[in-house]
Design brief:
single chain, 197 residues, alpha/beta, Nucleotidyltransferase, domain 5, 6 helices, 5 strands
Length: 197
Amino acid sequence: MVNVESKQSVVVGVDAGNVISGVVVLLNGKIHHAENADNAKVFDYIKSLKETEGFKVRVIIEDIMPYLSKLSPQTIETCKWMGELRYRLKTARISHGFVPRASVKKWVFDTYPEIVIPMVNKKIAKKDRRTKSGDLWAPSMIYVDDAIVTAAMRYEWHIPAKVFKANRFKISKHAWQALAMATLYWTTATQNKKTPR
């Protein structure tokens, strides 16, 4: 069992998927656990943090906002799972909130310009997006994708990219987005308390 000085410092980021969800736990501002878990196991794991470990848990889930395009069966199943998870967290009295993907993208764009801007400029040039005067478009958060979020998180947490080798936290796939949500929440909460991470 982990010895914790502050029960307020446990944040769980969840990037919900239709079958598998990315889950990352920050404990006292450090990565404690990361995995891409079967949805059937996610709630039980979160509940165990509260009941077995005795932590006061705050869960941050990536929200799905209205689409202009047709909804895929996977998106519909993801929405159903998010509704189930929300209900179960609420019933268990586990604090939780939803963060839209756009908020994560904007935060990454604003917080890590040294990482994001060159990658965004490369995407704009590749797509040859130009103004009426012929200049390339200015960088924008709309170009922030999963690869850019991953690069920003590697920078923030000092996680080098190694070909064919797992990183020390075993973060992959959906867990990168979960890490971004947890990091966004933790950073905002600690800044509001004027406490460095």
